[in-house]
Each structure stands twice: as C-alpha cells, then as structure tokens.
Design goal:
By secondary structure, this protein is mainly alpha-helical. The protein has 3 helices and 2 strands, in the order ααββα. The protein has one domain. Strands 1-2 form a two-stranded parallel sheet.
Amino acid sequence: MDFEKRIETFAEWLYGGQLSRGIYRGRGKHRIWPSLEAGARLVIVNHGETPLDRYAHLRFHENAGTVLPMAVKKLKERMGDVRVS
C-alpha cells in the first residue's frame, strides 16, 4: 500500500475510533492484546523495526512528525473542518 493510501486509511480509522491509543515501549504485546482482541487496529509509526510489527494492521517507517500531521489533516477534511490549511 502506498504512503498516501496508508495516510487515508489511518485517518479513516481515527475517524471511526478503531485504534488502540498509546505509546508502548519494549515488549508491550501483553498491554495491547486485549484491545486487539476487542477489534482495535494497531498502527505503528517508527523508523526501525519493533517486536509488534507482525501484529500491526498498518505500518509506517516514516517520521512521526510527518505521518501524524498528515493523518490529522485528512481526519479534519473527513470531518468537514473548514480550517484545514
């Protein structure tokens, strides 16, 4: 999936409340597993590989400072926020 499509998918999941929110360091599988079993989506934004990559529904190897603002912009567009620049 190309970068733009991943951004659109990320924004769609944000809009639908389908994500487990949080930052997990180290071996966090035990902390996110209940959310994943309940249907939450796991999105990983990290330059390097992580132990949770194989569980990710969506994976970004780009900088969070690039990915997150773009996803929020798409989310605002989807919500009809006219202040998006």
